[in-house]
Design goal:
By secondary structure, the protein is of the alpha+beta class. 31% of the residues lie in helices and 29% in strands. A hairpin with a 3-residue loop joins strand 13 and strand 14. 35% of the residues are buried.
């Protein structure tokens, strides 16, 4: 089962909060310090771990104190430190990706190339330890998939190498924009999302939004350094993906005088999706067709309309867009810009999805692509369907009816119901 990590960030995210949460979730401190020594920076900082309480909630606080003033580092300097440290492969890959994202954001803010960026605060030993230490912890825990909650942006100003900057800092704002992170204000006028925290979240997270469906195994609480009106804690949820997570629990109530039965395995996997809806009574069919094209281009999973009766006896349509959390903001923006709607409803839903795999079969008319729906990544096959465009192209080329090609493909695909070797081709 895939190992899932969910960053729950009601008061933002910073590198030291990530480290505290990882240690609280079970990462051995000795392992972390031993691996960090390979960076050859131990003489530049002191690493302290304490147990604290925020509004009566116990959490783990990590403080990394830099021992002396440091000169700035460029991206190639940091890359060399990480590459030469003989760290686990995933740790190197993730750490380099985080600093490269940060360099790209800083470069965009200053109008220069990423290689020319002078890292000040994030070039110091504490920031490098934050990033590499977080990657070490996630690797030790065996995390395969990361999701992050929407982020509170904070407010006010913060002292930086270039003077006082508005919060969120320019690089943070650029990172949030580039990753299309859902953000909000919780009314706290402090720096809640640091550049390091933003880079970790936007680089490693597959999506932003509510927790994915999983069986929860561990929770780690990492403390922030500020005293805030609400507990300044990052909560790291760790669990495993469960293919039965959309169905009733095995502990649900059962009928009297009937022994409880274990739930039947639910085929496929459960995932969170976003449903956007709006009613329209003054949009032309041409505009709707144009809107469909635009929504699919920016990541919509499905779109459909339903005829409805509206106020004043007007005929209208209910437009529904299904999308991931990552593309929800872009889809919502397009609905406002390309339609006459004044409001869009947004709901989070769970859907059960079969594992999709692709295979090619040979017919008298040529090769046809078959899309299969599998109960698990290895089978069994529950659904087989010839791909429309594949059949249509052969029908045009061979000057035969489309349904003849489809029937031939269905017949040729029957042995696939017993197949176990399914390449995981990406869907196009």
């Amino acid at each position: 089962m895939a190992r899932i990590a969910y960053f729950d960030c009601p008061t933002g995210i910073a590198g030291n909060m990530c480290l505290g949460a990882l240690l609280a979730a079970g990462v051995p401190l000795g392992h972390l310090l031993t691996q960090l020594k390979k960076l050859d920076l131990a003489h530049e900082y002191d690493f302290t771990v304490t147990q604290v309480r925020h509004q009566e909630q116990a959490a783990t606080a990590v403080t990394i104190k830099v021992n002396s003033a440091h000169s700035f580092r460029h991206l190639p300097d940091i890359e060399a430190l990480i590459r030469q440290a003989n760290l686990p492969g995933r740790v190197v890959e993730w750490s380099l990706a985080i600093f490269r994202e940060l360099a790209a954001a800083e470069a965009s803010v200053h109008g220069i190339l990423p290689e020319q960026v002078h890292f000040h605060e994030v070039g110091a030993a504490d920031a490098i330890v934050d990033v590499v230490g977080t990657c070490l912890g996630l690797d030790w825990l065996g995390v395969d998939h990361i999701v992050c909650s929407p982020l509170p942006v904070g407010g006010g100003t913060v002292k930086a190498a270039h003077g006082r900057l508005p919060v969120p800092a320019p690089a943070v704002l650029e990172l949030l924009k580039r990753a299309q992170v859902p953000i909000y204000s919780n009314g706290i006028e402090k720096e809640l999302v640091t550049p390091t925290g933003a880079a970790i979240a936007t680089t490693l997270s597959a999506s932003f939004g509510p927790s994915p469906a999983m069986t929860l195994n561990q929770v780690g609480l990492g403390a922030g350094s500020h005293e805030l009106p609400i507990p300044n804690i990052l909560r790291l949820w760790l669990g495993t993906a469960s293919i039965t997570s959309c169905q009733p629990s095995a502990h649900d109530h059962h009928l009297p005088n009937h022994a409880p039965q274990p739930p039947a395995p639910n085929p496929g996997y459960c995932e969170s999706i976003i449903e956007l809806q709006t009613q329209l009574d003054d949009l032309t069919p041409q505009a709707i067709g144009y809107l469909y094209d635009g929504l699919f281009q920016i990541g919509a999973l499905d779109i459909f309309t339903q005829a409805i009766g509206m106020k004043k006896n007007r005929s209208g349509i209910l437009l529904t867009v299904i999308c991931t959390n990552a593309s929800a903001a872009a889809c919502q923006s397009l609905l406002f810009s390309e339609t006459t709607t004044l409001g869009v409803r947004r709901t989070v839903q769970q859907r059960q999805t079969l594992y999709r795999r692709w295979q090619s079969v040979t017919t008298d008319y040529g090769q046809v692509q078959i899309k299969a729906g599998l109960a698990t990544p290895d089978g069994p096959v529950l659904n087989l369907q010839p791909e429309y465009e594949s059949c249509a192209q052969l029908a045009r080329d061979q000057r035969v009816a489309w349904k003849q090609v489809q029937w031939a493909a269905i017949a040729a695909a029957q042995p696939l119901y017993q197949a176990h070797d399914w390449p995981d081709f990406p869907e196009t």
